[in-house]
Amino acid sequence: MSGGEADDRRDAGISLIATLLDEKATLGEWWRSIMAQTRPPREIVVVDGGSRDGTPGILREMAEEAPFPVRIHEEPGCNIARGRNRAIELASHRVIAVTDGGCVLHKRWLENLVRPMLDDPEINLVAGFYQPLEGDWFQGLSACATLPLPWEVRAGRFMPSSRSIAFRREVWEEVGGYPEWLDIGEDMYFNHAWKVSGISFATAKGALAYWRMRKDLAGLLKQYFLYARGDGESGMYPQRHAIRFSAYGWLVLAAFSWRGFLEPTLVAASLYSGRRWLRVPFYMRNETPLRQAAAYAALPPLLAAIDGAKMAGYICGLLGGRRR
Predict the structure, then answer these.
(1) Which of 57, 253, 263, 322 is such that its CA lies 20 to 30 A from the CA of 292?
(2) Edge-to-edge, what's the strand order for the sheet holding 104-105?
(3) Cβ pair 177, 85 in contact under 8 A
(4) Distance (Å, rounded) from C-alpha 234 to C-alpha 179?
(5) Three state DSSP letters for 54-105
(6) How far is it, in rounded angstroms, from Cα 122 to Cα 141?
(7) According to the model, what pLDDT value does residue 134 have?
(8) Measured between alpha carbons, how far is residue 63 from residues 44, 45, 49, 80, 109 in Å?
(9) Is 185 left (phi over 0), alpha (psi -120 to 50) or beta?
(10) The pTM is what?
(11) CB 273 within 8 A of CB 297
(12) Are 104 and 29 in contact (CB under 8 A)?
């Protein structure tokens, strides 16, 4: 490859797309993180799903001083999948980077995210990574329960969130875009589609998008209920859900039929929580030793509550009728 061809590829235009809905409170932080990127996009395309807090107007004011074009399209009532598809339709460039409103992007997020594609023409998609923004004790505990650390992730099995992903437009076209018939879990369905298609991809753990965990137990359980309902509606992860139902079914039967079930149950809970316990020193590093100890104790019941929400959501998704 000639030096000129390499330079052309490295200077490829990048469209950054995002969806927004009532992000007034976090819009400034999100926008500043985009403006601070070491490699800025050539354009930003945003689809607003019908904000009632003035988000589009505030963004337009911010965009007046942007060093690149910013297109803001309003489509009230659209879901995230439709918003992403519409933004990609409106985008001008071949390389599409995707994030979400409400995130805060590391200053090298876009640079690290697109580098594998620009260095290797065979790579058509790059899976970035994400970490929680620092929050209170419960948010740290939630991160321990639900978010793997970068060194836990195996590249071949990683399913990225679309708050941190980039791909060539051909990938989106080949798999038919994001599934607009699915309100929740659309990014995981998109992941299954491109993996089944054999798309060549790479991971970029240094492409970090930071996001906020739910602030309380009710919000967290609702989140995982909805995720699992999306699995039931779309037919995703049937084996994973079957294992969960089988495990908890066994525990219920053992509780009623076996006096000595408590000890093996505690052992099973310890094994199940073990990997999450290893996250406590990282996600709870700013907490006192006493509060860290409380996190170790609280993880097993929190995991059980999340599993209960997932089982209820999956059943609702199945009963609602599998889509597509």
Answers:
(1) 263
(2) 70-74, 43-48, 14-20, 95-98, 165-168, 125-132, 201-211, 104-105
(3) yes
(4) 10
(5) CHHHHHHHHHCCCCCCEEEEECCCCCHHHHHHHHHHHCCCCEEEECCCCCEE
(6) 40
(7) 86
(8) 9, 11, 18, 22, 20
(9) left
(10) 0.88
(11) no
(12) yes
Task: Kindly state the helix (H) or strand (E) to which residue 211 belongs, with its residue range.
Answer: strand 201-211
CA–CA gap between residue 307 and residue 305 (Å, rounded): 5
Percent of the chain with pLDDT over 70: 90
- Residue carrying structure tokens 């999956």: 314
* Tokens 């809970």 belong to residue: 269
Residue in the block written with tokens 């609602």: 320
The tens digit of pLDDT for each residue in 49-96 reads 999 999 999 999 999 989 999 999 999 999 999 999 999 999 999 999
Retrieve residue 8's tokens: 């052309």
- For the record, the structure tokens of 259 come out as 């006096």
The two tokens of residue 132 are 């929680």
Any alpha helices (H) in the chain, and if so which ranges? 3-10, 24-35, 55-63, 80-90, 109-119, 137-146, 169-175, 186-196, 217-234, 238-257, 262-277, 280-283, 289-319
What is the pLDDT, as a whole number, of residue 47? Answer: 97
